[in-house]
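Summary for the steering committee. One of the milestones for this cycle was to obtain a three-dimensional model of the protein with methionine sulfoxide bound, which we needed before selecting residues for the alanine scan. The sequence and ligand used are listed below.
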Amino acid sequence: MHQFAIAAGAKPELYRELLSALDALTAGEPDAVANMANAAALLWEYLSDLNWAGFYRLLDGELVLGPFQGKAACIRIPVGKGVCGTTAATRQTQLVVDVHAFPGHIACDAASRSELVVPIERGGLLFGVLDLDSPSPGRFDMEDARGCEALAALLADRLF
Ligand code: SME
């Protein structure tokens, strides 16, 4: 079991510490499933107020469920559908303050009220997305988006 001294301080510091912990957890490990599993566990443990944290991978043109923490979730999501599919189609982070106001949001867990989805890509190729859900409206802000984009950039080198 890995233990990290991650302070529940300001978000920039929190994400710097998460990046360093994720780096240590995945350095030298080529297995993508192992790295996604540990990343999901790390985010689940240290980010507050989540009801889901995990990955969808782009496989044969659609998003397929990867390692995660939280309730069992939708397995396949077409590119362009829902928050995850929109992220895959646009390759832009989707910061959704209120999922009920997002056209086509896919409610895997009815408790979800806000969502942050970040693309994971390298060299123009999309690997998949990192998806965080919260039961609180407006849980995520631009600091979360930038922090998770930095995590996704590190993971891009460890997942392909
Ligand atoms: N809400 C997502 C689906 C995935 S679950 O939240 C785990 C979406 O709209 O794409």
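Key point for the committee: The chain has a mean pLDDT of 95.
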